[in-house]
Specification:
With 479 residues, the protein is an all-alpha fold. 70% of the residues lie in helices and 0% in strands. It is built from 29 helices and no strands. The chain is elongated and about 125 Å long.
């Protein structure tokens, strides 16, 4: 496009159309943007030859200065700058800031200081926010934080207002040297003046404030950190590390609801929370006995394939059972196992037994057997005994039969109690079935037709029990 424009520029003479200074400035700008600064400079030199009334102006020279600076040719930029002054043209703020920025990028700090001192004496240039930001950046990059703070103070002499870039550079520099107390002062000033909400100046960079977020959230000041974070959110400026610091800070301070709200906002923006965020939130939700919320986060982690902590999964299931949300508890456990995770089954069944929830404990043991998990025979014996004492003979015999089907019945210590309970309950055939399979008892493969019918009926009941989750949770069945 620039070459085409330059061709049209040359054609103007053929049609006796004299270009003016605006035309020249346009072609010079285009050439500089594509790195053809030498050609642009030659074009400027040829302006006076075309007409005595045609001379480069401040815009022309500022464009050339910027072109040389873009190529990091600061020496040529200074030559053009001096040429401009020698022609009686007065550089404006854009000229000075462009040159200072170019010198800054090639680390010619002494030259910057020389220019500012000279221009300050004759009043040709009054620094603005951009100038001070460049100077502060220079000092911070050179490790002169104290000097950068002095520059920050001097801006008030010129009635120059700081912007978000001013604060971000100073705060970041102070954090790097570990002076968080001083950085905190600037951070609070930034929040109080709501500088981040101003449309003027640079676009805020969240990364510059992340060290401060981390420091404040790690020292019990998450609420103060969130004030600045919310201002950044209004400017649509946020990133995952900032969310993480704030969420973990809220969890640490016990304000988990605020952390949960931030997690929701994080997900809405398609940021992916890591394991640590979920782990901290679930831990706090469990402490506050928020069973439904904890379960929802476990489900969310499974959906997003985020690694789960077996202890938190088990504690979530316990809390659901304790809150009489057994259907939800079973659903979570099925989801966990379907996704390749497990729970601490012995601890969970032990909790259910202690809570008198023997039916749920029985279902959990049957679920483990169905999933071919290793089960604690002693725990099974405890469940069977408890069911017998509670007159839940069908369930007690059912669990025994599941163990029998998997060849584990010989190790059950409560067979005599089960047999006696079945006899006392009038279930003579089941009692005889158990008796014949007790250690040191005469073994017989003959089973009465009546008991066969009962076993078939139990097998159907067992199938229904094992399919409990599929019946009640069609979404799980369709996975």
């Amino acid at each position: 496009m620039v070459d085409e424009g330059f061709s049209f520029f040359k054609l103007m003479e053929r049609f006796k159309c004299d270009p003016d200074v605006v035309t020249y400035n346009t072609i010079v700008d285009g050439l500089c943007r594509v790195g053809k600064v030498g050609i642009a400079h030659n074009v400027v030199k040829g302006m006076s030859k075309k007409s005595l009334d045609l001379n480069p102006n401040v815009v022309t020279y500022t464009t050339l200065v910027r072109g040389h600076c873009m190529k990091q040719d600061s020496d040529e930029a200074l030559v053009v700058f001096q040429e401009m002054i020698s022609r009686g043209l007065k550089p404006n703020r854009i000229t000075y800031n462009t040159l200072i920025k170019g010198l800054f990028e090639v680390h010619k700090y002494d030259k910057i200081k020389e220019i500012l001192e000279r221009t300050g004496e004759d009043g040709r240039f009054i620094p603005d926010t951009c100038t001070f930001n460049t100077l502060i950046n220079v000092q911070c990059n050179a490790g002169n934080t104290d000097e950068a703070l002095n520059v920050f103070k001097r801006r008030s002499e010129f009635e120059v207002q700081p912007d978000s870039a001013t604060y971000s550079v100073i705060i970041s520099s102070l954090c790097q040297i570990g002076d968080f107390e001083k950085a905190e002062e600037f951070f609070y000033e930034l929040a109080k003046k709501e500088i981040l909400l101003r449309d003027v100046g640079c676009t805020p960079l969240v990364a510059a404030y992340n060290p401060m977020f981390e420091y404040l959230c790690g020292n019990g000041k998450t609420k103060k950190a969130e004030r600045v974070f919310r201002q950044l959110m209004k400017r649509e400026r946020q990133d995952p590390p900032a969310y993480k610091s704030l969420i973990l800070g809220h969890c640490k301070e016990g304000t988990f609801k605020a952390g949960y709200e931030l997690l929701v906002l994080m997900l809405r923006r398609d940021f992916e929370p890591g394991f640590e965020i979920y782990d901290s939130l679930i831990s706090e939700l469990l402490k506050k006995s928020c069973a439904q919320e904890a379960a929802s986060l476990v489900t969310l982690m499974l959906d997003r394939r985020i690694r789960l902590n077996i202890n938190l999964s088990t504690q979530t299931a316990k809390l659901l059972f304790a809150s009489w949300l057994q259907d939800k508890a079973f659903q979570i456990i099925v989801l966990l196992y379907d996704n390749g995770y497990v729970v601490e089954m012995e601890a969970l069944v032990g909790f259910l037994c202690q809570s008198g929830r023997l039916l749920e404990a029985c279902k959990m043991m049957q679920f483990s057997l169905e999933k071919h998990q290793t089960v604690d025979i002693e725990m099974c014996s405890t469940v069977i005994e408890g069911l017998c004492n509670s007159k839940r003979l069908s369930e007690a015999f059912g669990l025994y039969y599941e163990l029998l089907a998997r060849g584990k019945h010989q190790q059950v210590r409560c067979l005599d109690n089960l047999r006696m309970a079945l006899e006392a309950g009038g279930r003579v055939d089941e009692a005889e079935f158990v008796s014949k399979r007790m250690p040191n008892q005469w073994q017989c493969d003959d089973v009465s037709p009546k008991l066969k019918a009962r076993i078939q009926k139990f097998q159907q009941q067992s199938f229904l029990c094992n399919s409990f989750y599929l019946i009640h949770f069609p979404k799980v069945a369709n996975r």
